Amino acid sequence: MCGIPSWAKRNPEKWEQIVFNKNYLKGVERSHGVLQCEYCGKPNLIICEWYENKNDNVATVDHFLPSSKFKELKKNPNNFVVSCDSCNNKKSDDIWEIVSIKYPITENKLQILTELNYVKD
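Request: output the structure for the sequence above.
Response:
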């Protein structure tokens, strides 16, 4: 098992976010039993360590309202969407419509994001 990477000492904020996101994914997995992309529905996503090679089934945390534009939402789980690596890369820093979440993990996910989106306006 690898510990904290040497680059994390130079960029502790990035490392902290990686750990935060991973813990979020673990919590979702514990609560729901499985990780599925909330955008495309890809099932059985896995949580990878920072040092592992990513594959088609890796789970990522997408900041629905991009953290580059909404820094105050960087660690707000209400702004998180479980995403496959492909969808997360496709979305990038764009702001998508809430209807792009076709497979929400909870019944009230779309409502929460709608309220969060409303607050930013």
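Residues 12-32 form the longest helix (21 residues).
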